[in-house]
Automatic annotation (TrEMBL):
The active site is at 8, 137. Pathway: Isoprenoid biosynthesis; isopentenyl diphosphate biosynthesis via DXP pathway; isopentenyl diphosphate from 1-deoxy-D-xylulose 5-phosphate: step 3/6. This is 4-diphosphocytidyl-2-C-methyl-D-erythritol kinase. It is an enzyme of class 2 (transferase). Belongs to the GHMP kinase family. IspE subfamily. GO terms for molecular function: 4-(cytidine 5'-diphospho)-2-C-methyl-D-erythritol kinase activity; ATP binding. The gene is ispE. GO terms for biological process: isopentenyl diphosphate biosynthetic process, methylerythritol 4-phosphate pathway; terpenoid biosynthetic process. InterPro entries: GHMP_kinase_C_dom (IPR013750), GHMP_kinase_C_sf (IPR036554), GHMP_kinase_N_dom (IPR006204), IspE (IPR004424), Ribosomal_Su5_D2-typ_SF (IPR020568), Ribsml_uS5_D2-typ_fold_subgr (IPR014721). Its EC number is 2.7.1.148. It comes from Phocaeicola sartorii.
Length: 275
């Protein structure tokens, strides 16, 4: 069984308050984009190991046990001992440490895949609960539809929003921003106007009203990332922003841009039609 975990972008991100558990309540719009990894699970021929992880594509640091797909397998195995040994084949395309939720998406897709393959009978809500144990924004990828998210990024309300017809350019410089460190730099504040209202306004207005709270501190530390956002506006983006805690930056355009890779040499650079 094979599946293609996709990335997300954050349209705006307000960090509202620090919680007693150290996490932060926030509000954001999660929007899925068609930049994908590939994830396949097959039944292991012999039962020597519970699982083996075969990784290809862009290299990932860490041991197999650190990988969120393995964590997802182990999490379900605790409650469903009937899960059989598996070979996990993963091709990484979504850059890690990018604010694109690549690892979170892999984990959520693993839960959905194991649920289907082994007929576990989990409901959408149950899969979201398992996913939320693996990462704050993991649960979003279970339904994978544009949502207004609150809490720590795990409570969702549907939003009426379609960016179909627009094109996105995604740039990821060779800079790793730790999500934990990025949160530590923030002074949380409740926004005067909620993103839920701002996103209903025409996209042309977002430039002046929709903000990612991580940008100030991350741009200060890494001016190269701020320069990418400026360049996307120079190229004609209707809206440009950093996604999540960085380091990726995206621009939304009315029409595709030619030879875009040449304009961002040295960076991961992809252009896609939005759906
Ligand atoms: C910043 C976002 O990319 C926005 O979409 C996500 O909220 C990050 O979600 P994630 O990568 O799944 O985050 P996790 O792996 O759960 O958390 C990494 C670290 O970020 C901090 N963290 C994360 C989410 C949150 N709402 N508040 C936090 O303070 C915590 O210190 C945590 O230890
Ligand atoms: N399957 C995986 N794919 C990518 N990273 C993984 C995976 N499993 C574990 N990780 C670890 O998770 C960390 C962050 O990965 P991920 O790509 O999800 O973060 P991100 O791009 O910052 O996304 P976000 O913060 O928006 O969830 C990396 O340090 C990486 O080593």
């Amino acid at each position: 069984m094979i599946t293609f975990p996709n990335a997300k972008i954050n349209l705006g991100l307000n960090i509202i308050e620090k919680r007693p558990d150290g996490y932060h309540n926030l509000e954001t719009i999660f929007y899925p984009i068609n930049l994908q990894d590939a994830l396949e699970v097959t039944r292991r021929e012999n039962n020597d190991n519970e699982y083996t992880l075969h990784l290809s594509g862009s290299p990932l640091e860490g041991e197999p046990e650190d990988n969120l797909v393995v964590k997802a397998y182990k999490l379900l195995k605790k409650d469903y001992p009937g899960l059989l040994p598996v070979d996990i084949h993963m091709y990484k395309h979504i850059p890690a440490g990018a604010g694109l939720g690549g690892g979170s998406s892999d984990a959520a897709c693993m839960i959905k895949l194991l649920n289907d393959k082994f007929s576990l009978g989990l409901s959408t809500g149950q899969m979201e609960e398992y996913a939320a144990k693996l990462g704050a924004d993991c649960a979003f990828f279970i339904q994978n539809k544009p949502v207004f998210a609150t809490g720590i990024g795990n409570l969702f309300e549907p939003v009426e929003l379609s960016l179909k017809g627009y094109h996105i350019i995604l740039i990821k410089p060779d800079i790793f921003v730790s999500t934990r460190d990025a949160f530590a730099e923030i002074k949380p504040v409740r926004p005067a106007v909620s993103l839920k209202e701002i996103v209903k306004q025409p996209i042309e207005t977002w430039k002046d009203s929709m903000k990612n709270d991580f940008e100030d501190s991350v741009f200060k530390k890494f001016p190269e990332i701020a320069a990418i956002k400026d360049k996307l506006y120079d190229l004609g983006a209707v809206y440009a922003a950093m996604s999540g805690s960085g380091s990726s930056v995206y621009g939304i355009f009315k029409a595709p841009i030619e030879n875009v890779e040449d304009k961002f040499c040295g960076c991961f650079c992809r252009q896609r039609a939005l759906e």
